Amino acid sequence: MSILKWDKEFALEQAADDAELLQELLGIFKESYRSDLVLLKEGVRLGDARQICSASHSIKGAAASLGIEGIREVAMDIEADSRNGSLTVANEKIQDMEEMLLHLLAL
Q1: What are phi and psi for residue 23, nearest 5 degrees?
Q2: How confident is the model at residue 86 (pLDDT cuts 50, 70, 90)?
């Protein structure tokens, strides 16, 4: 789980110390992350920096709210780069995003 850098205590705190609610929030995040990753990959394929920026921004915010720092950091890097119209970081880190999805799904 080190790739995710998940602060589970922070996430539980965000869920008002309700473990059941946290699991529900994780389920929602897993689905939104999967959808946003599809948009991110499509943006890379189409060369659409705006779509990449939007998808990575969505991922970044949701990951931050659950204390999943690994995903937040990578999404933040992709977002910052794509804001300038660049696809470089997205191309470099798309594999990392896919690998983190697999780790996330195992939670």
Answers
A1: -65, -40
A2: very high
